[in-house]
Amino acid sequence: MEKKNEMYEGKAKKVFETEDPEVLIVSYKDDATAFNGLKKGSIAGKGVINNRMSNILMAKLEKKGVPTHLIKELSDRETAVKRVKILPLEVIIRNISAGSFAKRYGVEEGIVFKEPTIEFSYKNDDLGDPLMNDYHAVALGLITWDELETVKKYAFIVNDFLKEVWKGCGVTLVDFKIEFGKTSDGTIVLADEISPDTCRLWDSETGEKLDKDRFRRDLGGVEEAYEEVMRRLTESK
Ligand code: TMP
User: Fold this and answer.
1) Of 117, 198, 201, which is best to mutate to test ligand 1, by the most ligand atoms within 8 angstroms of its C-beta?
2) What are the structural domains, with CATH classification, of the chain?
3) Could you read off the pLDDT of 200-218 as tens digits, one per residue?
4) What is the position in ligand 1's atom list of the atom closest to the CA of 174?
5) Residue 1 confidence (pLDDT)
6) Percent of the chain whose pLDDT exceeds 90
């Protein structure tokens, strides 16, 4: 499979067209941004880790009944995926308070919820990805009610699955963000990535942060954290 013209460059990935109109190639970069691109940097080796980790997790999710965009890992940084139209709706599940939730409601991080929460934000950099409820998403024509039901169902399956996988690695899944896309026949599939860029992962024993918060909050040891979670995931397989 060959890359043809570059279709899109995002903050952490590039997307290329291929000779097959239904297939794209995603190439993961080491670039990292935070706070809607205000903070910029690079995390050495991140692209390789995120590519591999996302593929391992998505391949397993397919077996749990969640369709994904994954076709085939092509190299360290590149993966062939189904061409989808990304729904401009970020889906965030939280098991424990942290990040913008803790800030918005004025609570400490680390409150374990009895049940996971789900929220959406409008994927729009110019507006800073504002929080959005179901009705607003439907009113804006971003998604239908039926599609929302599907997205929510898949998101909670992803949460149950990821919680278990990370638990087996001595890691607590605090929260995560996923994105869905629609294939040409209208099927909703999990797209984008699942990685330490998009999940909060805390060491179950020490509470140490093993994710992108180390970059966002200048905690140091960023590369080491990514390597550590990748090592634990590979060894638990
Ligand atoms: P938040 O607490 O900042 O809203 O983040 C919730 C989760 O979403 C956290 O696991 C990090 C992830 N996330 C992204 O993947 N991309 C983003 O742009 C933001 C703001 C958060």
Assistant:
1) 198
2) 6-82 (3.30.200.20), 85-221 (3.30.470.20)
3) 999 999 999 999 999 999 9
4) 10
5) 82
6) 99
